[in-house]
């Protein structure tokens, strides 16, 4: 099992307790590029092709709704693979 697989498994097991760093690594493994927040904002913007996603930096854990969006993207990516 690769590190990416372990991170994704952790997301599926408990989406309420995912640190921002873990979610960031999963998104970058999926091929998203990250744009840092500007002028006092806490939202990081991830883009890949025509998909754009904003995730606020929050401690200790990212809100569950953002983790579920990433899980949906993972499901869509798996469907596209032959």
Description:
The protein has one domain: Double Stranded RNA Binding Domain (2-Layer Sandwich), CATH 3.30.160. The protein has helices at 3-13, 20-29, 64-80; strands at 33-35, 43-48, 51-56. The chain starts with a helix and ends with a helix. The chain has three helices and three strands; from the N terminus they run ααβββα. It has a three-stranded antiparallel beta sheet, with helices on one face. With 82 residues, it is of the alpha+beta class. The protein is 46% helix and 18% strand.
CATH architecture label name: 2-Layer Sandwich
Any idea what the radius of gyration is? 13 Å
Helix content: 40-55%
Average pLDDT for all residues: 84
Low-confidence stretches: none
Q: What sort of overall outline do the alpha carbons produce when their principal axes are compared?
A: globular
Number of domains: 1
Strand order of the largest sheet: 1-2-3
* Main sheet properties: 3 strands, antiparallel
Total of DSSP H or I helical runs spanning 4+ residues: 3
The percent range for strand residues is 15-25%
* Secondary structure tally: strands: 3
Q: In CATH terms, what is the fold-level topology? A: Double Stranded RNA Binding Domain
Order of helices and strands: HHEEEH
Which structural class should the secondary elements be placed in?
alpha+beta
Distance between the termini: 21 Å
CATH class: Alpha Beta
